[in-house]
């Protein structure tokens, strides 16, 4: 039953620069402002009924460089 670990490893390969989902983003913002996130269901361009990640491996193979999301996310939230 190691399917979960295999999926995690696959996601790490697909997202070597870090995975950022809306829940993780809300947690970082909530920690910075000292509040708990409030989640509501509704229509949103960011609502997906399944896992959805964007893969930047092609851009990487073409020479573009990316930092890891954890290197800049908290600072970006703090500056907002």
What's the story with the biggest beta sheet?
Answer: none
Low-confidence stretches: 6-14
The SS-based structural class is mainly alpha
Number of helices: 4
Taking all Cα atoms into account, the compactness measure Rg is: 15 Å
Principal-axes shape call: flat
> What string, H for helix and E for strand, traces the elements in order?
HHHH
Give the strand tally: 0
Q: How helical, in percent, are the residues?
A: 40-55%
Span from first to last CA? 42 Å
What is the typical, i.e. mean, pLDDT? 76
Strand content: under 5%
Q: What features would you describe in this structure?
A:
- By secondary structure, the chain is mostly helical.
- It is built from 4 helices and no strands.
- The protein has helices at 3-14, 22-33, 57-61, 69-79.
- Helix 2 (22-33) packs across helix 4 (69-79).
- The longest helix is centred in the N-terminal third of the chain and has 12 residues, at 3-14.
- The N and C termini lie far apart (42 Å).
- Residues 6-14 have low confidence and may be disordered.
């Amino acid at each position: 039953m190691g399917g979960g670990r295999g999926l995690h490893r696959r996601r790490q390969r697909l997202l070597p620069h870090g995975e950022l989902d809306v829940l993780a983003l809300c947690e970082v913002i909530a920690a910075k402002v000292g509040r708990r996130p409030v989640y509501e269901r509704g229509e949103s361009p960011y609502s997906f009924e399944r896992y959805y990640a964007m893969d930047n491996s092609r851009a990487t193979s073409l020479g573009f460089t990316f930092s890891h999301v954890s290197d800049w996310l908290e600072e970006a939230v703090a500056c907002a």
